[in-house]
């Protein structure tokens, strides 16, 4: 104790003071006072309510003379005290805050995942999920996944509770449904909107071809690359091989007349216009096996609906618009064959019609008019003044259209499985359906059915593409410009059960010639295209509650569709 007393006297005049209760670092006096236990040189352990009862001796040290701090503590009472808890060191305080943050995140994760999987003690009345961006760039379809929805599904009791509440939403939507006839724009209005397109495509075509074809003067020379600026070749690596081949054979297929060069340009004779996930890929793969059928260089150019507006991927916004010349380039392979037939026949027999027909199979053509709002602003009450079919009809009033449909309930589930990138489950699908229905209801409260169906903002906000299954809305709009006998509507269910029958319907519709038994077998007995992926099959069918909800939602639209087509099969009652 004598030594300790001498130490205290030696450093009593120091300008730094440290409390052995809380300080382990040498701190300036002004910072040391910030410690809630240390109140400066006048701090009295006997009077301080925190320090009272402790026999601790503070040491005064000179920080200028000492490199290391040695803290001596003399305790007269060795019993443990809770007072140390209130004087946490800085590191301990940070650890406590970090621990609280981790605990908060864990609790938030429990709440979110618990609500999703029905694990909460008090479940949410609606199992709404978060907004997700819409997929949709290549609308591919499935055929053999038809049988998946017949498999048994486990009942999730928590989702059964959703049905009454969501049924009220559907009832509200149903009460607002009104099928109205749209105002068809006149030709001059269309010309004002797309003057370049009308300057390139003539209003008369070659008489001895089933396709809308014409000769266009080519002003380049042998060193000129005719596809140098083609946007399909520039933006997609998988199309470059096709264009490399076209470059090699391009000059050989020019028509030379009076020191000028002409290239044959063609538009399709028929279009497979929809719908996605309804079997159009399988129909396309079978049709292109027919010896008289040719398609565009790529299955789905999406030019009428997206590329001509500069949409490459919906999530990436707008790019430079693809001119109509880029679209016409996609039919050069078919045009070369047609030109060869025309020239050979012209030498033998004048006026004989070429039998080759060209098709195009973008499954977005029937329904996707999302870009109109950015280009056509003279709309009435949110409805688009111009639709895709208006322009197609302006150039090709005799075009033929093929539509493949399926039960819209199963189509939506197949669409979800194909485009969803992660966390796919029947529960997640249920949540996205519920959220999409509520969004659609909100739109229907303020706008017409057509305005909501073609609403770009709504369509991008809905986690699943409910609107694609409203077939009759789109079909009625196509029937405002095309005659009914120009449109063939098929069901995927019929195609899956009897491929030969549906293909014969298509051949007859397109006026294709008869086939040999070998050719017909090749077309009708080929394996189905674009079937459901194994990992998606493992998820099984949707929840029964989800199916019941979607049945109620689509019922009035299916009823109207069956009336328009005079076919109750489009009610999809059996499925």
Please explain how this structure is put together.
With 575 residues, the protein is of the alpha/beta class. A hairpin with a 2-residue loop joins strand 4 and strand 5. The radius of gyration is 37 Å and the shape is globular.
In short:
It comes from Columba livia (Rock dove). The chain crosses the membrane at residues 93-112. With 575 residues, this protein is of the alpha/beta class.
Mean pLDDT: 79
Q: What is the fold named in CATH at topology level of the domain at 187-571? A: Rossmann fold
Number of extended strands: 10
Q: What's the alpha carbon Rg, rounded to whole Å?
A: 37 Å
CATH class categorisation of the domain at 187-571: Alpha Beta
SSE layout:
Elements: H1 2-10, E1 17-18, H2 29-32, E2 59-60, H3 90-117, H4 157-160, H5 162-176, H6 187-193, H7 195-200, E3 213-218, H8 231-235, H9 240-250, E4 255-257, E5 260-266, E6 270-274, H10 280-287, E7 293-295, H11 324-329, H12 332-348, E8 357-360, H13 372-375, H14 388-395, E9 400-405, H15 408-419, H16 426-444, H17 449-453, H18 456-461, H19 471-478, E10 487-491, H20 492-497, H21 499-509, H22 517-524, H23 534-537, H24 544-565
Helix pairs in contact: 5-16, 5-24, 19-24
């Amino acid at each position: 104790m004598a030594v300790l007393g001498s130490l205290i006297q030696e450093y009593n005049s120091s300008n730094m003071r440290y409390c052995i209760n809380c300080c382990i670092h040498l701190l300036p006096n002004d910072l040391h006072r910030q410690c809630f236990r240390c109140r400066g040189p006048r701090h009295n352990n006997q009077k301080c309510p925190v320090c009272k009862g402790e026999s601790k001796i503070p040491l005064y040290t000179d920080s200028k003379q000492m490199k290391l701090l040695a803290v001596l503590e003399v305790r007269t009472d060795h019993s443990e005290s809770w007072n140390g808890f209130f004087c946490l060191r800085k590191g301990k305080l940070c650890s406590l805050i970090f621990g609280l943050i981790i605990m908060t995140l864990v609790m938030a994760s429990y709440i979110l995942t618990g609500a999703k999987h029905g694990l909460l003690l008090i479940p949410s009345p609606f199992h709404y999920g978060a907004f997700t961006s819409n997929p949709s760039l290549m609308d591919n379809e499935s055929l053999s996944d038809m049988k998946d929805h017949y498999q048994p599904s486990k009942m999730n009791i928590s989702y059964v509770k959703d049905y009454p509440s969501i049924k009220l939403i559907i009832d509200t939507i149903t009460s607002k449904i009104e099928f109205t006839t749209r105002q068809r724009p006149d030709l001059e209005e269309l010309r004002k909107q797309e003057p370049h397109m009308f300057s390139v495509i003539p209003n008369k075509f070659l008489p001895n071809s089933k396709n809308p074809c014409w000769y266009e003067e080519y002003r380049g020379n042998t060193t000129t690359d005719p596809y140098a600026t083609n946007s399909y070749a520039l933006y997609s690596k998988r199309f470059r091989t096709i264009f490399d081949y076209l470059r090699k054979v391009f000059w050989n297929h020019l028509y030379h007349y009076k020191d000028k060069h002409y290239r044959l340009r063609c538009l399709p004779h028929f279009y497979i216009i929809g719908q996605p996930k309804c079997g159009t890929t399988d129909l396309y793969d079978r049709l292109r096996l027919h010896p008289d059928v040719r398609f565009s260089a790529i299955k789905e150019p999406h030019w009428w609906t997206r590329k001509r507006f500069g949409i490459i991927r919906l999530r990436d916004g707008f790019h430079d618009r693809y001119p109509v010349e880029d679209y016409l380039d996609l039919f050069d392979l078919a045009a070369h064959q047609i030109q060869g037939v025309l020239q050979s026949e012209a030498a033998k027999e004048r006026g004989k019609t070429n039998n080759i027909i060209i098709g195009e199979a973008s499954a977005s053509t029937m329904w996707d008019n999302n870009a109109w709002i950015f280009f056509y602003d003279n709309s009435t009450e949110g409805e688009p003044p111009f639709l895709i079919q208006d322009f197609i009809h302006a150039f090709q009033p005799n075009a033929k259209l093929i539509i493949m449909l399926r039960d819209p309930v199963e189509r939506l589930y197949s669409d979800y499985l194909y485009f969803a990138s992660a966390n796919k489950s029947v529960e997640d699908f249920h949540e996205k359906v519920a959220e999409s229905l509520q969004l659609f209801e909100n739109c229907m409260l303020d706008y017409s059915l057509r305005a909501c169906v073609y609403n770009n903002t709504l369509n991008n906000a809905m986690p699943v593409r409910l609107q694609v299954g409203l077939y009759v809305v789109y079909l009625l709009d196509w029937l405002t410009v095309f005659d009914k006998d120009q449109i063939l509507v098929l069901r995927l269910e019929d195609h899956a059960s009897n491929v030969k029958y549906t293909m014969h319907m298509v051949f007859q519709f397109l006026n294709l010639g008869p086939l040999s038994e070998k050719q017909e077998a090749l077309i009708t007995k080929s394996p189905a295209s674009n079937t459901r992926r194994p990992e998606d099959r493992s998820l099984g069918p949707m929840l029964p509650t989800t199916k019941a909800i979607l049945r109620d939602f689509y019922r009035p639209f299916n009823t109207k569709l069956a009336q328009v087509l005079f076919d109750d099969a489009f009610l999809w009652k059996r499925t």
